[in-house]
Write a structure and sequence with these properties.
It is a single chain. The protein is α/β, with parallel strands linked by helices and 323 residues long. It has helices spanning 13-24, 44-54, 69-79, 98-109, 164-169, 181-189, 210-216, 224-238, 242-267, 271-284, 293-296, 299-309, 314-321, and strands at 3-9, 31-38, 59-64, 84-87, 93-94, 113-115, 118-121, 127-131, 160-163, 196-198, 204-207. The protein has a 7-stranded mixed sheet with strand order 3-2-1-4-9-6-10, with helices on both faces. A 4-stranded mixed sheet has the order 5-11-7-8. The protein is globular and about 60 Å long.
């Protein structure tokens, strides 16, 4: 078996069929689709079992009580038999040649990691934005330890191909019960990769669901970003790599922890939680203002960064109110 596609499912009945159809239409045959029904309360499970009955040689279905995205992915990896692992969220979908392109490249170049860009679309599939990785050489074999730009691309675990042995042999699991688990997982896998490639095929359509975005703005779960970075630091310390990657982790924290989380909370008018997050960030990265990442910020983010430094939240709220 060349590749195992892992699909956690929870209450996505209006989008799920499009996702599963894109998988069964792949232009290769040597793969399996592992779907984890994570206790959905809508008609998602029925859709999954209908596909499984139509394609019994392709699907493995796991029915479980609701345990969360991370637990579902971990269970999928446990059941996987493929040489490679590909994660996809059940509201997204991919081009028909996605797996074929990735597998052919992985086999040809003996790769343990393939990373792709993606196209952001709305729920109807209308184009919103293209995410292209332009900081890393494309279609070239690279060693991630020698090209740190790969450390700073998008944090999602989907739209990437992983060597299953790297996951199993290093006991790499998603941390359960938290947000931002992708950021932690992708940056843990990073140190185990020796031969990686960026392809910019934009093979995945990332569906932007407005309701879920708005619901997350002021959530207490935003505090999970603190947990994730503490876990990331602990992981790199355990592997005797923290001193080597200290600046990169701090840069990642500025771009993926401090600015976006603070902006979300300010937009949601949750100033108390914003103050808590701000305090945690400054305790973890006391010298963050001198990181080279600050000079790389665009004009808008530099302005937000400077306002955050002096805890002037009102102008930031106005920036997004009248955007």
């Amino acid at each position: 078996m060349k590749v195992s596609v892992i699909v956690p499912v929870y209450n996505v009945e209006t989008l799920l069929e499009r996702c599963l159809t894109s998988l069964v239409n792949q232009t290769i045959n040597d793969f399996e689709i592992i779907v984890i029904n994570d206790g959905p309360t809508d008609g998602s499970a029925e859709i999954v079992h209908r596909f499984a009955s139509e394609y019994p040689d392709l699907f493995k279905v796991i029915d479980q009580k609701n345990s969360g995205l991370s637990a579902s992915r971990n269970r999928g990896v446990e059941r996987a038999t493929g040489k490679y692992i590909y994660f996809i969220d059940s509201d997204d979908y991919i081009k028909n040649d996605t797996l074929e392109i990735m597998i052919n490249l992985a086999e040809k170049h003996n790769l343990d990691y393939i990373v792709d860009g993606f196209e952001q679309v709305d729920e109807q599939g209308n184009y919103l934005e293209l995410y292209k990785i332009d900081s890393v050489p494309v279609n070239e074999v690279i060693n991630p330890q020698e090209n740190r730009n790969l450390f700073h691309i998008h944090n999602a675990v989907w739209n990437r191909l992983y060597l299953r042995d790297n996951l199993i042999n290093n006991n790499l699991n998603f941390k359960e019960g938290i947000w931002y688990e992708d950021l932690l997982y992708s940056h843990q896998y990073y140190i185990y990769s020796q031969r990686a490639m960026v392809i910019n095929h934009q093979a995945l359509y990332y569906v932007q669901r407005e309701g879920s975005i708005m619901a997350s703005l002021g959530s207490e779960k935003n505090k999970d970003i603190v947990t994730v970075f503490k876990e990331l630091i602990k992981f790199y310390e355990k592997n005797n790599l923290y001193n080597e990657y200290r600046d990169d982790i701090e840069k990642l924290a500025i771009n993926q922890f401090y600015i976006p989380t603070m902006v979300r909370l300010i937009r949601a008018n949750n100033r108390q939680l914003a103050k808590e997050i701000d305090k945690e960030f400054r305790n973890m990265f006391p010298n963050y203002k001198s990181n080279h990442a600050v000079k790389e910020l665009n004009i808008k983010h530099r302005l937000i960064f400077n306002l955050l430094n002096i805890r002037l939240y009102g102008p930031i709220a106005l920036m997004f109110k009248f955007r």
